[in-house]
TrEMBL record:
InterPro entries: AmpG_permease/AT-1 (IPR004752), MFS (IPR011701), MFS_dom (IPR020846), MFS_trans_sf (IPR036259)
Subcellular location: Membrane
Domain (Major facilitator superfamily (MFS) profile) ranges: 10-428
Membrane topology according to the record: Multi-pass membrane protein
Presence of keyword Ion transport: no
Protein name: MFS transporter
Keywords on record: Membrane, Transmembrane, Transmembrane helix, Transport
SUPFAM superfamilies: MFS general substrate transporter (SSF103473)
Length: 432
């Protein structure tokens, strides 16, 4: 669909739109885990609570057709961003109440569905406001802008929470508990302010977003399209192997995702590395995420040059084998920040490098057909389900096993990834 004449320049709304999406997602699903840990929750509970917030993003293909039916896509973007901003403001205020955790989890759960709606609508504005040439041109800007979100959230906000806790409120960084409420309230005020500011910016500069040609005209039609897309997915040749690939390719990462940061901040006597939030923000949220971005860029170039089918097993090795760095660090518990940063950067670089294979496989082998976009969303939804399930049980397993044995378990959990990768069928032409 061609770009409308009155559409503002994409650089005025594409970077801010995708940054705002990522900021909400990372605050809900990753930053919240660090907050829960700081507030004194055990690893099992902290990881479980944060993982439940992935659910809405996992099932968003199920309610995406209904969002398409009403108003404009920009309307949903603005409403979602204002609600998300107001919601984080509510979180900050609620933290001063007794028994605030129930209120926090209720607000977070609601905000996760609103955030998922923001993703659907923002993607819709991008796809329907720009023609195919412009979509390709700004794809890199879109990806880079989204990746700035995790750096700001897991890097900047986590770092700032530690700084405020120790230098402004003069609390002990090594003690987890209610003293952390003061600094985390400010963090949520900041996230709320950024999100609402972005809503007003997009009110001025974001295009409305046109209706797609296949937009359902009624709830019944949307339900029928969703059902038909599900049936046609299951009719594809070797679909169960492809679905197993979508669920299991990143299995070990699911077990590592929440526990990695916990391992960094847990005290030495508990088997952790005893880092402060400031150090975690620098190591995990800055250098680690920069390594992911660099790995993704080089991984894409690698697959583009050699093709996906001959490289898929190598990409599986890249995403799984470097997890051993956490096992090594749990054994030796290094105190040198350079060594810790190197360990995290190695794992994150190869995670980014290998993840390219997962996304390209879904695009080229699982998705093609009548409902390409929906089937791709089902594949990524399965990946999200894996992250939610593994994340929810990861903390409990770690507490039972201890860090060294748990990271041994993470290495064992790489085996299903290698099996589904070896069996993954290629029925479509490899266009990588």
């Amino acid at each position: 669909m061609a770009s409308a004449p009155n559409v503002k320049h994409p650089l005025l709304w594409v970077p801010t739109g995708y940054f705002t999406m990522a900021l909400a997602y990372m605050t809900l699903t990753s930053v919240s885990a660090i907050m829960f840990k700081n507030l004194g929750l055990d690893n099992g509970t902290a990881a479980e609570y944060a993982s439940y917030l992935i659910l809405a993003y996992t099932i968003k293909p199920l309610f995406a057709p209904f969002v398409e039916m009403y108003k404009t896509k920009k309307f949903f973007v603005l409403c979602a961003q204002i609600i998300v901003g107001a919601g984080f403001l509510g979180v900050a205020l609620a933290m001063s109440l007794p028994n605030y955790m129930l209120i926090l989890m209720t607000l977070f759960f609601i905000l996760s569905f609103v955030g998922a709606t923001q993703d659907i609508a923002s993607d819709g504005v991008y796809v329907t406001s720009l023609d195919s040439k412009a979509q390709s041109l700004y794809c890199g800007v879109q990806s880079l802008s989204w990746n700035i979100g995790p750096i700001v959230a897991m890097g900047g906000l986590v770092y700032l929470s530690g700084k405020l806790h120790t230098e402004y409120f003069h609390h002990d960084a090594a003690v987890f508990g209610s003293d952390w409420i003061d600094s985390w309230r400010i963090i949520f005020f900041i996230v709320a302010g950024i999100t609402i500011l972005m809503a007003f910016w997009h009110m001025r500069f974001m295009p409305e977003g046109a209706r797609a040609e296949n937009t359902p005209k009624s709830t019944k039609e949307a339900a029928l399209i969703l059902w038909d897309s599900f049936v046609t997915l299951l009719q594809k040749k070797d679909i169960w192997i492809m679905l197993a690939f979508a669920f299991l390719f990143r299995l070990s990462i699911g077990f590592l995702e929440k526990i990695g940061p916990f391992f960094m901040v847990d005290p030495i006597e508990k088997g952790g590395l005893g880092l402060t939030n400031e150090a975690l923000g620098i190591v995990y949220g800055t250098y680690g995420l920069a390594a992911v971005v660099l790995g993704s860029l080089l991984g894409g170039m690698f697959v583009a040059k050699r093709g996906l089918k001959p490289t898929l097993f190598l990409l599986c090795c890249a995403i799984n084998i470097p997890n051993v760095t956490f096992l090594i660090m749990s054994i030796y518990q290094p105190s040198d920040l350079v060594v810790i940063t190197a360990g995290v950067a190695i794992e994150k670089f190869f995670f980014g490098f290998g993840s390219v294979g997962f996304m390209i496989y879904l695009m080229q082998q699982l998705a093609p057909g009548k409902y390409t976009t929906t089937h791709y969303a089902f594949g990524t939804g399965l990946m999200g389900l894996c992250m939610m399930v593994t994340g929810a049980i990861s903390g409990h397993l770690q507490e039972y096993m201890g860090y060294i044995n748990y990271f041994v378990f993470v290495m064992i959990a790489t085996i299903p990834s290698f099996i589904v990768c070896w069996l993954a069928p290629f029925h479509q032409k490899d266009n990588a």
